[in-house]
Design brief:
The chain is α+β, with helices and mostly antiparallel strands and 321 residues long. The chain has one domain: phage-related protein like fold, CATH 3.90.1690. The chain is globular, with a radius of gyration of 23 Å. The N terminus is likely disordered.
Length: 321
């Protein structure tokens, strides 16, 4: 964690608070921290127990006889595990560049922001690859190919599709989803969708000419619609940029997201975060000196494991685009 010539030290003046991190991530279209909320852990890796779906919903006796005690819940548990891994990126601040830009902008802060962007984008890609994967959600109970593509405004039936997916989640785990996750392109396509415009127009609510995430959430009857807007360059180094969405535009996830810090709360998943080594949820900012290149090195790192806990708490819609 150190350079050959000096010891890294924290830069809390550059490291943002979690509230500022949340705002910065939102501006970049990053939603990984919302889809898989952070769970703080004191161990880098460990087993944990989760209640089986079967025992969570099983009927239990509640009648107490005179002189007797109350029935105590007897849940069945199954073992799961996590193992966090450290991810980070560095940006050098060359002495000559520092002098060149001294009167223009804070080059240390800009360099740290670039490093943080690399770290957060990497996390976004990892979460997107898990949450929109047909390897995670398999079989008719967990995934459905919609009959009418949402990119065709006249024939698509997104409201009906989401309600059908909610019913599938309820049948799989007994819980109703509280979120719908989609890409910016999908959200943009829904702006001209006939089914959505008609429902908004005739229920006397929002302006159908400006459909918001909140309006869609009301139509889908969920707490929130999460729009993933992050993009990436998939081209190799020294090639022309090939910009694409991080999240697959052909998929939408209807799911139950965590709302508490209780690890026993049934939800689709969490991000386990190990902080004892100095990691911060939004990335710890550190600095050290590297005289071999006459530069101060700005480093951003975090220690996490993005984990699917209950696949039954989600239903993946495909054939969207």
């Amino acid at each position: 964690m150190t350079s050959p010539s000096s010891t890294a030290f924290l830069r809390p003046d550059i490291g943002q608070s979690f509230e500022e991190f949340d705002l910065a991530a939102s501006q970049q279209g990053f939603v990984a921290h919302r889809v898989l909320p952070h769970f703080e852990t004191l161990l880098q890796s460990a087993n944990f127990s989760k209640i089986t779906i079967e025992s969570l919903l099983r009927n239990q006796e509640t009648l107490r006889a005179p002189g007797g005690g109350y029935n105590r819940n007897k849940y069945q548990f199954e073992q799961d595990n996590y193992a966090t891994k450290e991810h980070g990126a560095e940006e050098p601040v060359d002495d000559r560049e520092r002098q060149m830009y001294a009167y223009s902008f804070d080059i240390e802060r800009i360099s740290a922001m670039r490093a943080r962007d690399v770290v957060l984008r990497s996390a976004e890609i990892r979460v997107a690859n898990k949450m929109f994967s047909t390897s995670t959600w398999t079989g008719a109970a967990l995934t459905t190919a919609v009959s009418n593509k949402w990119s065709v405004p006249g024939s698509a039936t997104p409201v009906s599709d989401v309600h059908a997916a909610k019913a599938k989640v309820r049948a799989s785990c007994g819980m109703l989803p509280n979120a719908v996750v989609m890409t910016w392109e999908t959200f943009n396509n829904l702006q001209t969708n006939a089914e959505i415009i008609d429902r908004i127009k005739y229920h006397g609510g929002d302006d159908p000419k400006k459909i918001t995430e909140e309006a869609l959430a009301a139509l889908f009857q969920v707490e929130e619609v999460i729009v993933a807007g992050a993009v990436q360059n998939t081209a190799n180094e020294n090639q022309n940029a090939a910009i694409s969405d991080v999240w697959n535009t052909n998929r939408v996830l209807v799911c139950k997201l965590a709302r508490t810090r209780d690890l026993r709360e049934p939800c689709v998943g969490r991000t386990f975060h190990f902080a004892l080594d100095g990691s911060a949820e939004g990335g710890t900012v550190e600095q050290y000196r590297d005289e071999t290149v006459r530069s101060d090195i700005m480093r951003v790192r975090h220690d996490v494991d993005e984990k699917i806990i209950y696949a039954q708490a989600g239903h993946l819609l495909t054939n969207i685009d």
